[in-house]
Amino acid sequence: MSLELTPAVRMRGIVKRFDETLALNGVDFDLLPGEIHALLGENGAGKSTLMHVLSGLHAPSAGSIEVRGKPVRLRSARDAAAIGIGMVHQHFTLVENFTVAENLALAIPRQTPFILPRASLAAEALAIAERLGWKLEPHVPVWQLPVGVQQRLEIVKVLAQNPDILIFDEPTAVLAPVELDELFAVLDRLRSEGKSLVFISHKLNEVLRLCDRVTVLRRGANAGHVRTVDTDAADLARRMVGQAVPELKEVLDPAVPRSEHVTPAGGPVLRIAGLHVRDERGIDAVRGLSLEVRAGEILGLAGVDGNGQAELAEAVLGLRPIREGQVEVAGVPIRKSDDRRQIGYVPQDRKRSGLVPGMSVRDNLVLELHQEPQAASGPWLRWGYLNAEAAEMMRTYDVRASSLEQPADTLSGGNQQKIVIARALHKQPRLLVALNPTRGVDVGATAYVHEQLRAQRERGAAILLISTELDEVLSLSDRVGVLYEGQLMGVVTPDTSRETLGLMMGGSPADHGALPS
Amino acid sequence: MAPSLRKWWAQTALLLPGVLVVSLVTVGVIGVIVLLLGGDPAKALLAILAGSIGTPTSVAETLIKTTPLVFTGLSVAVAFRCGVWNIGAEGQFLAGMLGAAVAALYLPPLPPFVTVALCLLAGCLAGGLWAVGPALLKLKRDVPEVISTIMLNFLAVYLIEYLVRGPMHDPTSASDWSPLFPPHTYLPRLQDLTGIRAVGGGSLLLSGGQPVLALGIEVGRLHVGVALAFLVVPLVWLWLTRTGVGFRTRAVGLNPVAAATAGLPVARTLAIAFVTSGALAGLGGAVEVLGLIQRMHRYAPGYPGYGFSGIAVALLAQLHPAGVLFSALFFGALAAGCGQMQRAAGIPVHVAYVIQAAVVLLLISVRLSAITFRFGAKRRGAGDGR
């Protein structure tokens, strides 16, 4: 059957060079009409770059592209849209201050040069949304919408240009399980309408569940091309990483029980009582939350993104004012971020809040340490001491850089995360707060982070792990709490059924099987 | 020693393409503008050369013109490195002049050295104080510093105008200026301190007798402030790279969110950088008024302009203290040379301002950073913690 089909997209020998780095080195890619085709690979494998080439954002350095059998040269996203290629970006391309309708109007080709028939354009797009079973409020500013709804808007925006080739760049990264199901239903529906879909991901179970065929990329080259019915997670993972990765099994298969952990939990290190915290908009993001984390245990907090995770972490760190309630670390109330000796923090967005780009690996490693009394004499920093400590941290935490002087933003994502981890752990904190510590890092780095968290637990640190990856929370935690709209829906054991957890994440409190918090 | 020397050279060599571009752009701009005005470009360029680095006297003139630019350039560089967009070096410079002037006119007689030190300190404090308001407004009320510092520039201009017409007015003169400062408040001449009148002497001449490169410096006109400018450059560099607060200044400037997340006191760091920036500009004003002018007179808005030129100086230097020295020397030489061009080639002085502005504009548009960094992509961020 497939012999008779002209591929919707046929890419051959695509090369893309950015200055000195070779992002794509002769990649082939075929997309058939009416299929969902997964593009799988680790961070930096070239998945997004390849699709940016297809959607006209990057000009390839070499190679050919055919769309529906005709050779094309794409010079811009507009060129690509004109021949029916649309891309739903991982980072949304919405104007936050505009309303839903205004954002939709922007995406639709103009019909008149001066006056935008906003109402009719938006109505057209809202009709598309409705056809997918979504309801969008046209006059709400985008910044007020939850992430999941913003993504729907993003998808509708692309669909409004009526493409028949659709690219989704890691669309599930920000979604809750329920939203995930809804997204998959929509993708399914688009496939049944005859559209061709590319699904970029590094989550094996999603790929296996949703897609027809898989193209695996590794370091900018093809590393396999299979039908999903002919493969399994282990095979795909091998192709993706190219070598055995410790703990890979656990990362792949969340059903594997967590490692037996023997250190008994000690006294409480973190104590939160009746905490209220506001977000940027002045709305209560954490509402009356109380919990305790004891020495030698990992308390995992699951929950869908945007339910107060970041605000909770920042309040514990003293980075965000506490409106009501108490936070105590080792018996001392947190007020300002001045004293951080007791607390290690792994923030969620290493580019934004973890690293200082443009500073060296060394400077980033000692970003916290340089404030310690032993790091300075008078106003002068003791660079001898700091250099030695940085070198030690680089060794201990296996940061792979050419030297301490290398600019941190030129490292791979995994090594950047190791810098952040090194900074948090080097001071041997009594409390470790980790907020989505593996978001956007590859399988190998994920395993590394998990190993470090376990090692900290063995050492006797209290660990508050806040993560939207339910698998991660379940495989690491001694106790599992679920956050919903800034409240704790309950604290349960990690062997609680996923159905129960799913309900809690949807806002129903745990009624039985809950542990005292 | 050898490896560090090689490293130094490797970093210095990065500047060469930039220097080449700066020279070519400058020569090109001058040539075109002079040609458009119907002048003789060759004659004008030779006059600029003679007036900037051609003779021992012109070298001294260049150094005099460079000195205030070093201070304002450093002021802007420190603020920008912390992500503080201080456009108010002009006002802080004027405040520094005023602070030094008040101290010079009203301090009781003290030993000359003490008096001069106190006057410089007064200028420094006044410049820093001029930045305290915008810093507080920024941190407490989210007022953009670009706006508040520009407003304070006007405040400085008109405060001085009021004072030199009123309370500080020289009763023996019809002009809007203060009395001359008492002589013991003047910055000492280097000649008086060291006994050296000149270092080297003579010039390389073209066959037509045109001087093109001095073989010495006339020390006669130079005051201590010139030496102070050269001393402050390494001090600011040490401050940025070797002290905790300098380290935090750079970290906050590059990523305030990550700095706050790592527990750095971001607000305090911003405030320190802002006030330090103001104090540097104020010190420049004090040096200028005590070393050269020796009385306070009124300024039209936009004059003397050293604060605004400081922004160009700092940007051309890519906010690096050592770069500020070279870029201030470049602008100082251009200013001194244009004066000579006016005299020798009959080009009006305002054309000189046009030339300076056009050179800055072109240099910013050729993106010096791109040129330097392409040559040094691997070395970027090395050593100096840039």
Describe this structure in words.
The complex is a heterodimer of chains A (517) and B (386). In chain A, the strands form five sheets. Chain A has a six-stranded mixed β-sheet with strand order 6-7-8-3-9-10, with helices on both faces. The N and C termini of chain A lie far apart (58 Å). Chain A is α/β, with parallel strands linked by helices and 517 residues long. The C terminus of chain A is likely disordered. Chain A folds into three domains: 247 residues, P-loop containing nucleotide triphosphate hydrolases (Rossmann fold); 183 residues, Rossmann fold (3-Layer(aba) Sandwich), CATH 3.40.50; 77 residues, no CATH class. Chain A contains 17 helices and 22 strands. Chain A is globular, with a radius of gyration of 24 Å. By secondary structure, chain B is mainly α. Chain B has a domain of 258 residues: Orthogonal Bundle (ABC transporter involved in vitamin B12 uptake, BtuC). Chain B is built from 16 helices and two strands. Chain B has a two-stranded antiparallel sheet. In chain B, a hairpin with a 5-residue loop joins β1 and β2. In chain B, α3 crosses α14. The relative contact order of chain B is 0.20. At the A-B interface, α11 and β18 of A face α10 and α11 of B.
